[in-house]
Amino acid sequence: MKLLAAFRFLTVIPLPGRREFSAGEAGASLGYFPLVGLFLGAVLAGIDWALGFILPPSIINAIILIALLLLTGALHIDGFIDTCDTLFSRGPPRERWRIMSDSHVGSFGVAGAFCLLLLAYVSLGEIAGTYKTIALILTPALSRWAMVYAIFAFPYAKPAGLGKAFKQQADGKKFALATSLVLVSTLGLLALQGLTPVFTGPVLIFAVWLLAAALGLLLQRRFAGLTGDSYGTINEVSQVFVLILFCLISRWC
Asked: Which pTM does this prediction carry?
């Protein structure tokens, strides 16, 4: 039930049973976020493999990014856009919350989304050889683990909101479960690639943690805590960051 709730929240994939879930069920699913990320990554790797027989890599990479947006219902990039629109605005945090809740998209949001997707596209094209498959599988898992960390570690800003349901149930057990899932999967896949997992794996996860912690501190300062949009922002930025890390890994390892 908890795993199904995580899938229903993080993806638009039709699953058996009811689509709606309570705030309590959503929060209880937190520990399984990286597992959903692994599934999404496996789908992306499958798309890359299947289309590799008929299309050039540049077109495949664009399709991969579009597929990820469609599979997630653009849930997280929407939060990133809202955050970009409000991050540099003046006024108290409550004023930023109001702007963030506005359905209209501003110039900062459009520019931020364009830059983010451009960087993701270029980074994906620079990952050499079979490292690309590992990167595609691990990137959504590591970014969703970063989101779990942010929910667990930082206070929630608003008095209400869907994100608060996750924050209220974020505890050490769920964070430990998410960390265990991402650690085992990272070490296993890196070992299959022939890398030294006991070194590369912890360094990779530590780098993602540093980014999530830095972003969390920045967003907490600007918004008096984190919001659901903040979680989406950390997920989106972490995804691109992991792709960049794999560019470096594929070149130097």
From this structure: 0.92
